[in-house]
C-alpha cells in the first residue's frame, strides 16, 4: 500500500497522469479527461481532491516555458465570472442529480464542438469571456471538467497562447475549488501527499509533450483542442448514463 492506495492502482494512476500531462502540454487541456475516469473507477475516494491538486500543479509547470502570450485581459473577464458560475454549480448539485447534470453538460459541450468545427467562429470579447467563465464554473463544479468552454473560445489563437492562457485559468480554477473544500473541511492530508508523490509523472508527461510539439504542426493544435473537448463531453455523458 502507498498512502492507503494499492501499489498496482498507484502504478496505473502514474501512467495515466503521464499520458494526461502529455496531452495537456500539447493542446492546453486533457489531464482531467484522461485521469478522471480512471481515478473514479479505481480509487473513487481520491476524487476530486487528487486531481485538483494535480490540476493546480501542472499548469504552474507549464507556465515555466509558456508564459509570454498569456491573455491577461481575457482571463480577467473569464475569472470574474468563474466564481458566480461555481456558486451556481454548487446550487445545481443540490437541485439536480449527478446524472441529469452530466447529460446536460455533455450534450452542451458536444453541440458547441460541432457548431465551431466549421460553422461558427466565436469572437473573444467581454461577453463571450464572461459566458465561458460562468459556464466553466458551473461545469467544473458539477462534473469536474471545466476546461472545454474556455478552450472552444480560444481554439483559433496561437498554440502557445492557448496553452499559457488555459494554464493560468486552471491554476485559479483549481485554487477556487481547493479553497472551497478547505472551507468545509474536506481536504485530506493523505490525498495531498499522494498527489505530491505523483507530481514527477506530470514532469515526464510535459517533457513528452515538448517532443510532440516538434512533430505535430501548429495548425493541427486547434483540431486537437476540439477532439479533447469532444472526448471530454463523451466521457461525461457515458459516466452519467452508465455509472
Short description:
The protein has 243 residues and is an all-alpha fold. It has helices at residues 7-27, 31-42, 49-62, 72-95, 98-118, 126-143, 148-154, 159-183, 189-215, 221-242. The chain starts with 6 loop residues before the first helix and ends with a helix.
SSE diagram, text form:
Elements: H1 7-27, H2 31-42, H3 49-62, H4 72-95, H5 98-118, H6 126-143, H7 148-154, H8 159-183, H9 189-215, H10 221-242
What does this structure look like?
The protein is mainly α and 243 residues long. It has one domain (7-242). It contains 10 helices and no strands. The chain has helices spanning 7-27, 31-42, 49-62, 72-95, 98-118, 126-143, 148-154, 159-183, 189-215, 221-242. The radius of gyration is 17 Å and the shape is globular. The mean pLDDT is 87.
In angstroms, what separates the terminal alpha carbons?
A: 27 Å
Largest sheet: none
Give the ordered list of helices and strands: HHHHHHHHHH
Radius of gyration: 17 Å
Report helical residue fraction. over 70%
- Structural class of the helices, strands and pairings? mainly alpha
| Average pLDDT | 87
- Sheet-strand content, in percent, reads under 5%
Low-confidence stretches at least 5 residues in length (pLDDT < 50)?
A: none
Number of beta strands: 0
Q: Into how many domains do the coordinates divide? A: 1
Q: Supply the number of helical segments.
A: 10
Shape descriptor reads globular
Describe the structure using short key phrases.
globular, 243 residues, mainly alpha
